[in-house]
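Exercise 7 asks you to align residues with C-alpha cells for two separate proteins.
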Amino acid sequence: MLSAFTGTADGYYTYTMSECVYSASDYSDMVYLLSYSFNKVVDVQYNSSVGECVGYTEVGVKIAESFNKNQAYVQQAKASVDTYCRPNAQVLDSSVRDKTVKPMITLRSARQADGSRPAVLMCSAYEFYPKKIKVSWLRDGKEMTSDVTSTMEMADGDWFYQIHSHLEYTPKSGEKISCMVEHASFSKPMITDWDPSFPEGERNKIAI
C-alpha cells in the first residue's frame, strides 16, 4: 500500500508505504513494515520484528520518539501483522502460489557437426510458472552431465519464466538424444526426443 502527498511546486514529496515481508507458507515469519519518507529518503520506519519505530534521519529520530510514546499507535502497528498482512497474503497466495503453468518446450539444432566442431542442440522452455524447473539431457535414456551449459531461469516480466540449455555432442549412428524437463506443472518429466532424420526445415520440435 502506498499513499502520497505532493507539496509545493519546488518538488517536495512525502509518502508512506506499508509492506508485508514473508517467505514461509504458514506466514510464521511475517514482518510488517510501515515507512515514512520525504523526497525518497526514509525518515522513520516501524518494524514489527523490532516492535517500535526507528528513525533514520535527524528529523526521523524525533518522529520515532514521538510515535513510540503513543502506545495506541504502537499496538495498532504491531497488530497489523494479523489484521492486515496475513489476511491479504492468504487472498493473494490463493490466486498465485498454488498455480502452475506448463512450459512450451522447443528442441532445435543450434549448430551442425562439421568435422572440426561438435554439433550443438538447444532445448528451451518458455512461459512457465512457478520459477523452479530442471532441464537435462539424455543419451539412450541415461543422463548426460558433460558438455552441457544452461542459463538461469529468466523472468519475462509477466509472472512467467524461460530457460535455455545447450548440449555439445558428436552424433553417433543409432543413438537417441533427448531433452528432459521437470516442472511442478507436469505429473511426470516431459521428454522430447531429437530426430536428426527429419529434413532441415522440420527439425525444430515443439512440445506443450
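Second protein for Exercise 7:
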Amino acid sequence: MCHRSNVLTEALEILERYHGSINPEEFIAYYAVMREMHPFGVLVSIILTQNTSDKNALNALMNLIKSLGPRLTPQDFLKISDSELEELIKPSGMYRVKVRAIRELLKLVTKDPDILTKEDPEKLRKLLLSVKGVGPKTADVFLLMVRGYPTFPIDTHIRRILYRLGIVDKSEDYESMRSKVMELIPKDKYLRAHLLLITHGRKICMARKPRCNECPIKHLCQKVGIR
C-alpha cells in the first residue's frame, strides 16, 4: 500500500506541473458549476456525458441553455415535453435513456426541492443510484463538485491510468477502485486529482496508441496492458 501511495502521489505532483491550468469547458460538470448553474442543471449536465465525448455533451448542454435559460432549474424542465427534451439533448447520444433518467430525477426534486443540497450525502448517493440511468460515477461527480463531499469518481480514463500504473487490477469493480484511491490521496486533493487524471488520459495515456514517449510519468508506469 505504501508503494502504491507513493506512486500515485508522485504521479499527481508531476501531472500538476505538466498539465497546469484546467479548462472548465473540457469538463462539463465543472463548467456547469463555474457558471453557477442550478444543482439540478449540474446533475443533468453529468448525465449528458454518459457514453459520449464531452464535446457532444457540451453541444447538448448548450442546446438546453439556449432553450431553457442559463440556470437549468427543475421548473425549466417541467415546461417542455419528452420529445422536445430528446431533440435538445440528441447530440449527446442515448437521448431517450437520458430523458427517462432526467424525468425520474425530476420526481425526486419535485417531491423534495432541497434534496440535492441538504440531504445527507451518503443517503443522497443511494437515492441517486436508485434511479435507472444514474450510475456511481454520475452520483460521485455530483457529490464531489456540487456538495464538496469527499468521494472519488472513477471514469474510463482514470481506470485505465490506475491499471497501467499497477495501482488497481483489471478485475476490480468501481467501488473497490474508488475506495482504494480515497485511501491513497488526501481528501482535499480529490477534485484536482480527478481532473488531472482525466486530462492525462485524454491527451497522453489514451486507450489506443498512448503517447508513452511524451508521458511525464513513464518512469512510474508499469505499462500494464500496453504492448
